[in-house]
Design brief:
4-stranded antiparallel β-sheet; 5-stranded mixed β-sheet; disordered N terminus; 460 residues; 7 helices; binds (2R,3S,4R,5S)-2-(hydroxymethyl)piperidine-3,4,5-triol; Tachylectin-2, Chain A; Glyco_hydro_beta-prop_sf
Length: 460
């Protein structure tokens, strides 16, 4: 009797506990739901008020490219560049510098985006793949780049590989390369008209043991500003011509236009590191992400407070997925990343990954590319991502920055900038977590030409 009483008493306590827990969870869920709805409503409101402009960005534009009839053998270099994947016919044309349809992918100088020529006629259109001239009329040299918006000067700075030299092969089987010249920097208020600020980190001509010696490799430079030290910090991929050094390098400057002082290189956390990026979060914490273990996985770690080194905190992510060219961004507390596959200079399929913390775990949610045609979507529109830039004042809208590499003449590689939006549910079922969290769909829209929404262009 006593035992039964004790049992039922502890039983009722237990059910009380369970019900209170259920209650708390319900309240929490309701709060999150209402809060999320609020934020979503605000965003929807903004979107509706800019409706037609967004419609322009999210238009699905198709491409109908006729592949010319076969004409015997391809150049041996073009055959080598070909990735071992299906659907290569258009990719073959793309990689063949003597293809009859070469101009579709690499239009001539006459079609260049020239802000000086087009100034005043209110048509700052981006034409992905066309040559892009700076305000002095020279093709912009900022490959594998990234953009820093500097709050102090209220200016955008675009940093990238300055590759204005001849392309050659260091070895018979080596990848196409250009000697290191340095990191180019361009400034702009409108992200269309760019002024060349010069080489802000220059190659070393004589000292062969220096990381920046011209016969080495300097790729994918990215710059962030440290609010505590007031310094601009650049991180980059440093390598030798055979890509065996596999390190990251760090440089520092008092001003966004340099010149940057090179500090050192190292193998992050003791691991090989090739394509990489850095990301500064809203709370000032900065992260480094790099392809490692022979590109089979990515590593993510936090930088120190001064951003000049990394902490020991490191996680392995996307293990076994063989991804590179990471470009990270954040929307409504969720982190997203676009990566490419690993096929040298040849284009391949992009994938989006999402996470609740930069440190992971990261989940792969699919190919973000929309429009063009199937091969466009399977090749990231014949390009490879390098950076994703948020459009201030337009939550959920970003610019996806990519490089259309030209391995036959790397200096003539083009820029493919396209609108990227985050919104709507995923288009593929999730693998785990009982379908929770529900990542938003990330979309990159193909356009032959496009422009920023009016509200953004006319903001100043
Ligand atoms: C792909 C990388 O993303 C580029 O930055 C460059 O390293 C090439 N490979 C070299 O083949």
């Amino acid at each position: 009797m006593y035992r039964y009483f004790a049992f039922s008493l502890s039983g009722s306590r237990c059910s009380l506990l369970v019900w209170s827990l259920v209650g708390c969870l319900l309240i929490l869920h309701l709060y999150t739901f209402v809060h999320d709805k609020d934020v979503q409503n605000q965003e929807n409101h903004m979107r509706i008020s800019h409706h037609s402009q967004f419609r322009e960005l999210e238009e699905v534009e198709e491409e109908d490219i006729q592949i010319p009839p076969p004409r015997g053998k391809r150049s041996p270099r073009a055959a080598k560049r070909r990735p071992r994947k299906p659907h290569t016919s258009l990719i073959d044309e793309f990689l063949d510098e003597s293809s009859q349809i070469r101009r579709i992918f690499f239009p001539d100088l006459e079609t260049a985006m020239d802000p000086m020529k087009d100034a005043g006629n209110d048509t700052p259109y981006y034409y992905p793949g066309r040559i892009w001239l700076d305000i002095e009329g020279n093709p912009i040299q900022a490959h594998g780049g990234g953009i820093l918006y500097d709050e102090i000067t209220k200016t955008y700075y675009w940093y990238g590989e300055f590759k204005d030299g001849p392309t050659y092969h260091a070895h018979k089987r080596g990848a196409a390369r250009v000697d290191v010249i340095g990191v180019g920097c361009y400034s702009s208020k409108d992200m269309w008209t760019w002024k060349n600020e010069g080489i802000v980190l220059a190659a070393e001509e004589k000292n062969e043991t220096h990381d920046l010696h011209k016969l080495n490799v300097l790729e994918r430079p990215k710059v962030i500003y440290n609010d505590k030290t007031g310094k601009y910090v650049m991180w980059m991929h440093i390598d030798d011509a055979n890509y065996t050094k596999a390190s990251v390098g760090v440089a520092i400057s008092d001003s966004p236009t340099g010149s940057f002082h090179y500090l050192y290189s190292k193998r992050p956390h003791g691991f090989d590191s090739r394509d990489m990026t850095i990301f500064k979060d809203d709370d000032g914490v900065a992260y480094i992400l790099y392809s490692s273990e022979d590109n089979s996985e990515l590593h993510v770690g936090t930088l120190n407070e001064d951003y000049l080194d990394m902490t020991n905190n490191m996680n392995r992510i996307l293990v076994g997925q063989h991804r590179e060219a990471p470009a990270l961004f954040k929307h409504r507390g969720t982190y997203y990343m676009i990566t490419s596959g690993c096929t040298g200079w040849a284009p391949n399929e992009a994938l989006t990954h999402a996470a609740e913390s930069v440190m992971g775990p990261w989940e792969t949610i699919g190919n973000p590319c929309i429009g063009g045609n199937k091969i466009f979507r399977l090749t990231t529109f014949f390009s490879q991502g390098t950076f994703v830039l948020p459009l201030p004042g337009l939550p959920g809208s970003f610019i996806f920055m990519a490089d259309r590499w030209n391995p036959a003449d790397l200096r003539d590689s083009r820029y493919v900038w396209l609108p990227l939006t985050v919104g709507g549910p995923v288009d593929q079922p999730l693998e785990y977590n009982f379908g929770f969290p529900l990542w938003s769909r990330v979309s990159i829209y193909w356009h032959k030409k496009w422009r920023l929404p009016y509200s953004w262009r006319d903001k100043d």
